[in-house]
Amino acid sequence: MTKILLVGLGGGLGAIACYFLSAYVQHLTPTAPFPLGTLVVNVLGCLMIGLLAYLADLRNLFTPELRLLAFTGFLGGFTTFSTFGNETTLLLAEGKNGSALANVSLHIGLGLGAVWAGRTLAALLWR
What we know:
The protein is an all-alpha fold. The chain has a domain at about 1-80. It has helices at about 1-30, 35-60, 65-80, 80-95, 95-125. The longest helix is centred in the last third of the chain and has 29 residues, at about 95-125. The termini are far apart.
């Protein structure tokens, strides 16, 4: 039960941070040609998971509970793109270049395809 609470607490805080940072960036850049707030959140999330994962591996600074709170919870709530970036980087570091390419291709291809399919289905069902 403690693990679930840690993930929930971290996830809630991460989602709130995502919302406020993204909205703030969008407010600062209202004429940007694409959602700059989302890009900032995703890149910052990747930077944060890279820094924290390196420290966790190198210095063993994180207990399993703190990993759940920070990595799975906060960064998971902030952006799952950070997890995707970290996992792809780990595949590359392990020399699994084909798996890394497949991971990137499938996430982008299937993700965009699923958004299109969801929008198409919704348009058919709720016109």
